[in-house]
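Q: Could you fold this chain for me?
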Amino acid sequence: MIADWGDLRIFLTLARERKLAAAARKLGISHPTVARRVKALEQAIGARLFDRLPDHFVLTAAGEELMADVQAMEQAAESIHRRSAGLAATANKGTVRLSAGEAMTAFIARHLPRLRRNLQCIEIELDSRHLLANLSKREADLMIREQVPDLASIVTRKLGHVAYAVYGGGDLAQRDADPACLRAAPWAGFDDDHSYMPGQRWLLDLLDGGRPAVRVNNWLVMHEAAAAGAGLAVLPCYLGDGDPRLRRIGPVLPRVAPEQWLLVHDDLRSLPRVRAVMDVLVQLFQEERAALEGRGSARPHEARPGPTARPRKTGQPALYSVP
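A: Sure. Below is the predicted structure, expressed as structure tokens.
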């Protein structure tokens, strides 16, 4: 009988990464340790699990059979980890981890005093990243994203949409919105690896085969480059309108208005502290709708009361559903 989940987790990681060094980095251990633990597992089972090729490992037939069982064990362990968050008596206290892109994370951070006014028992961690966090593995409790992953376990709520426009700082703030004038200006945009970002397709079409003179991989860096006058930039209006160093050039871009979705794993959506944060985020997006859609200032309103986490009655239907 194999009782050591640690050995099975190492086996699973090596099967996915296929190289000792990569598996070791993923696990945070040395690659000789990975090799030793896998060999010990093979001896305990009495079967060879991997074929050792010159540059990578490949599962044997026995390894493939074990892989299916270990993946099922991993999913069960992850489910226990998620559900355990709601078993404690202090489920209405603790930490809620929110993941979003860096621009949206900055927007949330700007409004944290309002958000936390009625959530004093809850700590909030903000996780800024381009890629989706894995909600199943609790890399985050909540996500705000522009796309919804096709996963049955993820529950969603549409928050609204975000408008984008052209902004310029310094001498570029006086540029005319005429396309020919814009095309002749220097630009700050995303690098090739991040050309999927909102507004970048519009920019590349405008430049007609040209490339931005300044290329970055982060919204906040591009914001600062535009504010310094290094180049015009397509920015979300909630960033650009709130910065006195920038001037909006022309109207909002009509075909650049990505939807924003709040995502949570089904196992966590009823946890009181997670529900409380979800509620104040929904209310924040409602209150800041004009700023998010480019119809008003994105600067914080100091006198405005913070969103209130309203208590829910037992059995009240959830507002969140899988599209």
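A (continued): The chain has a mean pLDDT of 85.
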